[in-house]
Structure formats: structure tokens, C-alpha cells
Amino acid sequence: MKRALIAIDLDRTTLNDQGRVSAHTRQVLQRLQGDGHLVAIITGRSTRLALPIYQELALTSPMINFDGGLGFHPNYDWTDSYSFPLADPVVKDLLDHQASLGIEALLLENQTGTWRVNNQGAQGDFRLLEPDEPLFFPIQDDTLPSLSTLQDQTVPVVNGLVLYVAKQNQSKVAVYLRKAHPNVNVQVQAWGDNSCLMSLALTDVDKYTGLKRLQDSFGISSEAVYAFGDELNDYAMIAGAAHGVVMKNGNPRLKAIADDITTFSNEEDGLARYLEREFNLI
Question: What keywords sit in the KW lines (predicted)?
């Protein structure tokens, strides 16, 4: 079989519901890599959260983070590495207007750093975070640096920005951004119906951006590109890959465009078992 690009989402695809890689999944991915295939993480996670999994899997490929916003190799200088940061004026505007918009806290991230920003006048009840959200929004982690004095020259260039906003204020933030920055390619997205978290995202960058960069960089033929995912942020790469595979536990809207659906869920090593069958490992 010719060399394939196997692009894997992390949460609820490669990882089980406890956020861990099973021994079976690790073994299968390492065997495919050992056979010469390019196994690559393409995730919405920040580098802070994706790198430990990359290391656990002992991958040798570049990695795509922030839903396609950053592509780099953790161990060497990849010629085709890239970064599409969030627009500075938008980030600074949100920081300047956090109190009036009801933003109680922000988390800024890029490849090498994570910064917390607390609205000192807010009474944020961070107990309202969903059970798995503190991992992605560690606003109370005092080991992370805090941006307490915000001046233009101290605001970092970032690929990811997460806001903590009470549900009743979330529409206010979205409307403000559309009106204040109508020509900037960013949008704000709520994490879910019950979540107080919102993310700032680029409108013209997605996971397919990273998938295509990897394919072109390593000369992988289009028919040998596989992409695995479970949620709507995987939509572009599932649609763009020759083999767009959605997990059994995936979003129904994503399943509707899939080339195939795994027989087993992420809790049942669905990714590994699909790959074993597809690549004749058993």
C-alpha cells in the first residue's frame, strides 16, 4: 500500500471519554507509523494540551493545533510550518472592553505560552464550568502567568482565545464583534448550550488548512488521505479528505457527509479497530 496520511482528531476520536489514549490505539498508530505512513494530529486543542499526547504516541510528524491555525514540528524546523494568529486589534479590543461586555476572564494561547486575564471587577463563578472544561480553561491555575497590566506592547500574539462569559451576555459579545470588526476574519463561537465558554476563531482557517499543508508537504496522493473526527470543527477536513471517517459516537451532522463511519465508538477503540481493518493489520 502506498504511503498514506492518517489525520487524527483527539477528543472523542483518538482519546476515550476520560481523555486518555488506550494501549490498543497507541500500538496501532505506532505500527502504522513504523510501516511508513504519516500519522498526524489535527486538533482544536492548544499546543499545551496536544503536545503530551503527541509525545505519548511517539509521533514523528508535524502537528496541527488550534483547529488549523498553527502547524509545526515539535522536534525540528519543518519547512512548511505556519501560524495564522488572531487579529491583534480584535484581541486588544476584547481586553479593553471586557468589563462592559461582561467578559469575566480570558485565556490566551500560542505555541509556546498561555496567559490568564481576570476581570478584576467581575464576580466570576467558575464553578459553572462543565466538568471537563477546567482542562481547557485553567483560569484558576496560579502556575500560569497572568496579564494584569495590559499595554499594547505586552499583549502576546496568539492563536487561541477563550472567554468566560455568562450565558446572558454571550450574544452581546458576538454582536459587538460583528459591528466593531466587520471586515476582520474572526468569529466568536459558544462552546455549548450550557457552557459559559466562548472561543474566538478565524473564519477562513480550519482543519482542512492543516490537512492540505501536510499532504502537499509530504507529497501524499489525494486518494491516500484519511481524516478521522467526531465533531463539527472536523467538518472541513472530513469533507476534504478522500477518506473522511466519522466516529460512531460522532455528531449526526458530521456523519451525514462522511465517506465512512466507524463500527465502534471512541470508548471501544473505534479508531484503532477501523485502521486495523483498513490497513490489513489483522
Answer: Hydrolase
The rounded distance, in Å, linking the Cα atoms of 28 and 123 is 47
**Residues sharing a CB contact under 8 Å with residue 256, sequence separation 6 or more, in sequence order:** none
How is domain 88-202 classified at the architecture level of CATH? 2-Layer Sandwich (3.30)
Across the chain, what does the average pLDDT equal?
94
What are the b/e assignments for 201-233, b being 16+ CB within 10 Å? bbeebbbbbbbbbbbebeebeeebbbbbbbbeb
Tell me 146's DSSP state. Answer: B
Tens of pLDDT, residue by residue over 89-99, are 999 999 999 99
Place of cell 471517517: 245
Top-level CATH class of 5-83+205-278? alpha beta
pLDDT at 131: 87
Per-residue DSSP letter, 220: -
pLDDT digits (tens, 9 = 90+) for 136-162: 999 989 899 888 655 545 788 999 999
Domain chopping of the chain, boundaries: 5-83+205-278, 88-202
Beta bridge partners of 64: 42, 71
Measured on CA atoms in the order 236, 239, 243, 247, is the torsion positive or negative? positive
* pLDDT grade for 127, boundaries at 50, 70 and 90: confident
Burial of 163 (0-12, 13-18, 19+ CB in 10 A): buried
